Protein backbone atom coordinates (compact mmCIF):
# COMPACT_ATOMS: atom_id res chain seq x y z
CA UNK A 1 0.00 0.00 0.00
CA UNK A 2 1.51 3.29 -1.17
CA UNK A 3 -1.34 5.74 -0.48
CA UNK A 4 -4.22 6.05 1.94
CA UNK A 5 -7.22 8.39 2.12
CA UNK A 6 -8.64 9.18 5.55
CA UNK A 7 -11.58 10.77 7.33
CA UNK A 8 -10.22 12.72 10.31
CA UNK A 9 -13.10 13.45 12.69
CA UNK A 10 -13.97 16.53 14.68
CA UNK A 11 -14.12 16.15 18.45
CA UNK A 12 -15.63 17.80 21.51
CA UNK A 13 -13.19 18.20 24.39
CA UNK A 14 -13.62 18.98 28.09
CA UNK A 15 -17.35 18.09 28.13
CA UNK A 16 -17.96 20.71 30.81
CA UNK A 17 -16.47 19.01 33.86
CA UNK A 18 -13.45 17.31 32.28
CA UNK A 19 -11.00 20.08 31.37
CA UNK A 20 -8.06 18.55 29.44
CA UNK A 21 -9.11 14.99 30.34
CA UNK A 22 -12.48 14.20 28.67
CA UNK A 23 -13.46 14.17 25.01
CA UNK A 24 -15.75 12.54 22.46
CA UNK A 25 -15.55 11.83 18.74
CA UNK A 26 -18.07 13.23 16.25
CA UNK A 27 -19.31 11.16 13.34
CA UNK A 28 -20.17 13.46 10.44
CA UNK A 29 -17.89 16.48 10.85
CA UNK A 30 -14.23 16.22 9.96
CA UNK A 31 -11.39 16.69 7.51
CA UNK A 32 -10.06 14.45 4.77
CA UNK A 33 -6.40 13.62 4.31
CA UNK A 34 -4.26 11.69 1.85
CA UNK A 35 -0.99 10.20 3.07
CA UNK A 36 1.38 8.58 0.59
CA UNK A 37 4.69 6.77 0.78
CA UNK A 38 7.37 8.34 -1.47
CA UNK A 39 11.02 7.76 -2.29
CA UNK A 40 12.25 11.06 -0.86
CA UNK A 41 13.01 10.85 2.85
CA UNK A 42 11.23 12.96 5.46
CA UNK A 43 7.72 14.38 5.66
CA UNK A 44 6.31 16.98 3.26
CA UNK A 45 2.92 18.64 3.21
CA UNK A 46 2.18 19.10 -0.48
CA UNK A 47 -1.36 20.50 -0.46
CA UNK A 48 -3.81 22.17 1.93
CA UNK A 49 -7.30 23.09 0.75
CA UNK A 50 -9.97 24.81 2.81
CA UNK A 51 -7.68 26.76 5.13
CA UNK A 52 -4.72 29.09 5.03
CA UNK A 53 -2.22 26.99 6.98
CA UNK A 54 1.56 26.63 6.62
CA UNK A 55 2.96 23.97 4.30
CA UNK A 56 6.28 23.93 6.18
CA UNK A 57 6.49 20.60 8.00
CA UNK A 58 7.78 22.06 11.26
CA UNK A 59 5.07 24.74 11.34
CA UNK A 60 2.07 22.49 10.63
CA UNK A 61 0.54 20.31 13.33
CA UNK A 62 0.29 17.27 11.07
CA UNK A 63 3.96 17.57 10.13
CA UNK A 64 5.10 18.00 13.73
CA UNK A 65 3.05 14.97 14.84
CA UNK A 66 4.41 12.88 11.98
CA UNK A 67 8.02 13.86 12.73
CA UNK A 68 7.53 12.99 16.44
CA UNK A 69 6.44 9.52 15.40
CA UNK A 70 9.21 8.96 12.83
CA UNK A 71 11.88 9.96 15.35
CA UNK A 72 11.06 6.81 17.33
CA UNK A 73 11.39 4.47 14.36
CA UNK A 74 14.98 5.05 13.35
CA UNK A 75 16.02 6.20 9.88
CA UNK A 76 13.78 5.06 7.02
CA UNK A 77 14.96 4.93 3.41
CA UNK A 78 11.71 6.51 2.20
CA UNK A 79 9.38 9.32 3.26
CA UNK A 80 5.80 10.58 3.23
CA UNK A 81 3.66 13.24 1.58
CA UNK A 82 0.50 14.61 3.16
CA UNK A 83 -2.46 16.34 1.52
CA UNK A 84 -5.00 18.00 3.84
CA UNK A 85 -8.56 18.93 2.92
CA UNK A 86 -9.85 21.05 5.81
CA UNK A 87 -13.53 21.18 6.64
CA UNK A 88 -13.06 21.98 10.34
CA UNK A 89 -12.23 25.65 10.75
CA UNK A 90 -9.19 26.51 12.86
CA UNK A 91 -10.16 28.05 16.17
CA UNK A 92 -13.66 26.55 16.04
CA UNK A 93 -13.40 24.53 19.25
CA UNK A 94 -14.12 21.14 17.65
CA UNK A 95 -10.58 19.86 17.28
CA UNK A 96 -9.28 21.20 13.96
CA UNK A 97 -5.62 20.75 14.92
CA UNK A 98 -6.34 17.37 16.53
CA UNK A 99 -7.95 16.04 13.34
CA UNK A 100 -4.81 16.92 11.35
CA UNK A 101 -2.43 15.58 13.99
CA UNK A 102 -4.35 12.33 14.46
CA UNK A 103 -4.80 11.77 10.74
CA UNK A 104 -1.11 12.18 9.96
CA UNK A 105 0.13 9.66 12.52
CA UNK A 106 -2.69 7.21 11.78
CA UNK A 107 -2.02 7.31 8.04
CA UNK A 108 1.74 6.85 8.34
CA UNK A 109 1.23 4.05 10.86
CA UNK A 110 -1.04 2.21 8.40
CA UNK A 111 1.47 2.58 5.55
CA UNK A 112 4.20 1.20 7.81
CA UNK A 113 2.17 -1.89 8.70
CA UNK A 114 0.91 -0.65 12.08
CA UNK A 115 3.99 -0.70 14.30
CA UNK A 116 1.93 1.23 16.87
CA UNK A 117 -1.53 0.76 18.33
CA UNK A 118 -4.05 3.58 18.08
CA UNK A 119 -3.50 4.32 21.74
CA UNK A 120 0.27 4.51 21.18
CA UNK A 121 -0.30 7.12 18.46
CA UNK A 122 -1.85 9.58 20.91
CA UNK A 123 1.53 10.60 22.35
CA UNK A 124 2.75 11.64 18.88
CA UNK A 125 -0.44 13.48 17.92
CA UNK A 126 -0.16 15.44 21.18
CA UNK A 127 2.96 17.12 19.81
CA UNK A 128 0.83 18.69 17.10
CA UNK A 129 -1.46 20.03 19.80
CA UNK A 130 1.55 21.48 21.58
CA UNK A 131 2.42 23.45 18.45
CA UNK A 132 -1.17 24.69 18.09
CA UNK A 133 -1.87 25.72 21.67
CA UNK A 134 1.40 25.60 23.61
CA UNK A 135 0.14 22.62 25.60
CA UNK A 136 0.42 18.91 24.71
CA UNK A 137 -3.11 17.95 25.71
CA UNK A 138 -4.83 14.72 24.61
CA UNK A 139 -8.54 15.45 25.14
CA UNK A 140 -9.11 15.96 21.38
CA UNK A 141 -6.52 13.66 19.80
CA UNK A 142 -7.45 10.69 22.00
CA UNK A 143 -11.11 10.50 20.87
CA UNK A 144 -10.06 11.35 17.29
CA UNK A 145 -7.86 8.25 17.25
CA UNK A 146 -9.83 5.89 19.50
CA UNK A 147 -13.45 6.90 18.90
CA UNK A 148 -16.22 7.05 21.48
CA UNK A 149 -15.46 8.92 24.71
CA UNK A 150 -11.98 9.05 26.19
CA UNK A 151 -10.71 9.84 29.66
CA UNK A 152 -7.09 10.85 30.18
CA UNK A 153 -6.51 9.42 33.65
CA UNK A 154 -2.92 10.60 33.71
CA UNK A 155 -0.52 12.55 31.51
CA UNK A 156 2.64 11.34 33.25
CA UNK A 157 2.68 8.51 32.45
CA UNK A 158 0.07 8.81 29.69
CA UNK A 159 -2.92 6.63 30.61
CA UNK A 160 -6.05 6.82 28.45
CA UNK A 161 -9.32 4.95 28.97
CA UNK A 162 -11.78 4.59 26.08
CA UNK A 163 -15.47 4.51 27.00
CA UNK A 164 -18.30 3.33 24.73
CA UNK A 165 -21.15 5.78 24.18
CA UNK A 166 -24.75 4.95 25.01
CA UNK A 167 -26.43 4.22 21.66
CA UNK A 168 -29.05 6.96 21.81
CA UNK A 169 -26.64 9.74 22.75
CA UNK A 170 -26.34 12.56 20.19
CA UNK A 171 -24.35 15.76 20.08
CA UNK A 172 -25.45 19.11 18.69
CA UNK A 173 -22.68 21.65 18.11
CA UNK A 174 -23.12 25.25 16.99
CA UNK A 175 -20.10 27.25 15.83
CA UNK A 176 -20.55 31.02 15.77
CA UNK A 177 -18.30 32.28 12.99
CA UNK A 178 -15.67 33.94 15.12
CA UNK A 179 -12.21 32.51 15.74
CA UNK A 180 -11.14 31.93 19.32
CA UNK A 181 -7.58 30.66 19.59
CA UNK A 182 -6.95 27.96 22.17
CA UNK A 183 -3.95 29.89 23.48
CA UNK A 184 -6.14 32.99 24.04
CA UNK A 185 -8.87 30.95 25.73
CA UNK A 186 -6.26 29.42 28.04
CA UNK A 187 -4.92 32.84 28.98
CA UNK A 188 -8.11 33.72 30.91
CA UNK A 189 -7.88 30.66 33.17
CA UNK A 190 -6.75 30.77 36.78
CA UNK A 191 -3.85 28.59 37.90
CA UNK A 192 -5.46 27.84 41.28
CA UNK A 193 -9.00 26.82 42.19
CA UNK A 194 -10.80 26.57 45.51
CA UNK A 195 -11.15 23.21 47.23
CA UNK A 196 -14.95 23.64 47.15
CA UNK A 197 -14.92 24.04 43.36
CA UNK A 198 -12.50 21.15 42.91
CA UNK A 199 -14.69 18.80 44.96
CA UNK A 200 -17.72 19.70 42.87
CA UNK A 201 -15.77 19.25 39.63
CA UNK A 202 -14.32 15.82 40.33
CA UNK A 203 -17.73 14.67 41.57
CA UNK A 204 -19.13 15.60 38.17
CA UNK A 205 -16.29 13.87 36.29
CA UNK A 206 -17.00 10.69 38.24
CA UNK A 207 -20.72 11.08 37.64
CA UNK A 208 -20.30 11.55 33.90
CA UNK A 209 -18.06 8.50 33.54
CA UNK A 210 -20.48 6.43 35.65
CA UNK A 211 -23.41 7.69 33.56
CA UNK A 212 -21.72 6.62 30.34
CA UNK A 213 -20.95 3.12 31.64
CA UNK A 214 -24.44 2.59 33.05
CA UNK A 215 -26.24 4.35 30.16
CA UNK A 216 -27.93 6.60 32.73
CA UNK A 217 -28.89 9.62 30.63
CA UNK A 218 -30.17 11.62 33.60
CA UNK A 219 -26.88 11.13 35.44
CA UNK A 220 -24.98 12.20 32.33
CA UNK A 221 -27.05 15.37 32.24
CA UNK A 222 -26.60 16.17 35.94
CA UNK A 223 -22.84 15.74 35.56
CA UNK A 224 -22.42 18.13 32.61
CA UNK A 225 -21.63 21.07 34.86
CA UNK A 226 -18.41 23.11 34.81
CA UNK A 227 -17.59 24.91 38.02
CA UNK A 228 -14.10 26.08 37.03
CA UNK A 229 -13.52 26.91 33.35
CA UNK A 230 -16.89 27.83 31.83
CA UNK A 231 -17.52 30.88 34.05
CA UNK A 232 -14.24 32.40 32.81
CA UNK A 233 -14.44 31.45 29.13
CA UNK A 234 -18.15 31.92 28.44
CA UNK A 235 -17.78 35.72 28.35
CA UNK A 236 -15.65 35.30 25.20
CA UNK A 237 -18.52 33.64 23.31
CA UNK A 238 -21.40 35.73 21.92
CA UNK A 239 -24.83 34.64 23.14
CA UNK A 240 -23.42 31.78 25.22
CA UNK A 241 -25.89 31.96 28.12
CA UNK A 242 -28.86 32.23 25.77
CA UNK A 243 -27.69 29.34 23.59
CA UNK A 244 -27.12 27.12 26.62
CA UNK A 245 -30.48 27.96 28.17
CA UNK A 246 -32.23 27.40 24.84
CA UNK A 247 -30.61 23.96 24.49
CA UNK A 248 -31.76 22.93 27.96
CA UNK A 249 -35.30 24.21 27.31
CA UNK A 250 -35.44 22.07 24.18
CA UNK A 251 -34.50 18.81 25.87
CA UNK A 252 -30.71 18.80 26.13
CA UNK A 253 -29.24 16.64 28.87
CA UNK A 254 -26.58 19.31 29.30
CA UNK A 255 -24.73 21.98 27.38
CA UNK A 256 -21.40 23.79 27.55
CA UNK A 257 -18.35 25.10 25.71
CA UNK A 258 -16.87 22.75 23.13
CA UNK A 259 -13.13 22.65 23.74
CA UNK A 260 -11.84 26.17 24.14
CA UNK A 261 -14.79 27.60 22.20
CA UNK A 262 -16.39 29.41 20.55
CA UNK A 263 -18.45 26.34 19.60
CA UNK A 264 -21.15 25.32 22.07
CA UNK A 265 -22.26 21.71 22.43
CA UNK A 266 -25.34 20.01 23.78
CA UNK A 267 -25.80 16.29 24.45
CA UNK A 268 -29.25 14.76 24.11
CA UNK A 269 -31.05 11.44 23.98
CA UNK A 270 -32.21 10.67 20.45
CA UNK A 271 -31.75 12.36 17.09
CA UNK A 272 -35.15 14.08 17.10
CA UNK A 273 -34.24 15.98 20.26
CA UNK A 274 -30.79 16.79 18.86
CA UNK A 275 -32.39 18.19 15.69
CA UNK A 276 -34.84 20.24 17.75
CA UNK A 277 -31.95 21.69 19.76
CA UNK A 278 -30.12 22.53 16.52
CA UNK A 279 -33.11 24.51 15.24
CA UNK A 280 -33.47 26.37 18.54
CA UNK A 281 -29.75 27.21 18.65
CA UNK A 282 -29.93 28.40 15.04
CA UNK A 283 -32.84 30.69 15.85
CA UNK A 284 -30.79 32.44 18.55
CA UNK A 285 -27.93 33.29 16.19
CA UNK A 286 -30.33 34.18 13.36
CA UNK A 287 -31.88 36.82 15.61
CA UNK A 288 -28.39 38.06 16.53
CA UNK A 289 -27.46 38.25 12.81
CA UNK A 290 -24.36 36.21 13.62
CA UNK A 291 -23.18 33.68 10.99
CA UNK A 292 -22.85 30.14 12.31
CA UNK A 293 -22.40 26.48 11.39
CA UNK A 294 -24.27 23.68 13.10
CA UNK A 295 -23.69 19.93 13.35
CA UNK A 296 -25.90 17.13 14.65
CA UNK A 297 -23.98 13.92 15.15
CA UNK A 298 -24.11 10.55 16.80
CA UNK A 299 -20.97 9.58 18.68
CA UNK A 300 -18.37 8.09 16.33
CA UNK A 301 -17.25 4.71 17.76
CA UNK A 302 -14.22 4.30 15.48
CA UNK A 303 -12.21 7.55 15.30
CA UNK A 304 -10.02 8.18 12.23
CA UNK A 305 -11.02 5.83 9.45
CA UNK A 306 -9.89 4.81 5.98
CA UNK A 307 -12.09 6.04 3.13
Q: Rg to the nearest angstrom?
A: 19 Å
Q: Which blocks of ≥5 consecutive residues have pLDDT under 50?
A: none
SSE order, as H and E? EEEHEHHHEEEHHHHHEEHEE
Described by the principal axes of the CA atoms, the overall outline is globular
Helix content: 25-40%
Percent strand equals: 25-35%
Give the termini distance in whole angstroms.
14 Å
The major sheet is characterized as: 7 strands, mixed
Oligomer: single chain
Q: Which class do the helix and strand fractions yield?
A: alpha+beta
Mean pLDDT: 94
Please report the number of helical segments: 10
Count of extended strands: 11
Describe the structure.
The protein is α+β, with helices and mostly antiparallel strands. Helices cover 36% and strands 27% of the residues. The protein has 10 helices and 11 strands. It has helices at 61-70, 96-111, 118-133, 141-146, 182-187, 195-214, 217-223, 230-233, 240-249, 271-287, and strands spanning 3-13, 22-38, 42-49, 79-85, 149-155, 158-163, 169-176, 254-257, 264-269, 292-298, 305-306. It is globular and about 60 Å long. The two termini are 14 Å apart. The mean pLDDT is 94.
Amino acid sequence: MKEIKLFCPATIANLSCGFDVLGLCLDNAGDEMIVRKVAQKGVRITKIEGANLPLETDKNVSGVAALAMLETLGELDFGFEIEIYKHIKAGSGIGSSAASSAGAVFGINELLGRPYSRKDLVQFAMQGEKLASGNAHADNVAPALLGGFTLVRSYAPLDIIRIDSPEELFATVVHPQIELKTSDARSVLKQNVSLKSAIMQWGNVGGLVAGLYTKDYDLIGRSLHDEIVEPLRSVLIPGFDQIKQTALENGALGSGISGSGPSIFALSRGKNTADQIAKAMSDVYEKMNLPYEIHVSKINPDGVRIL
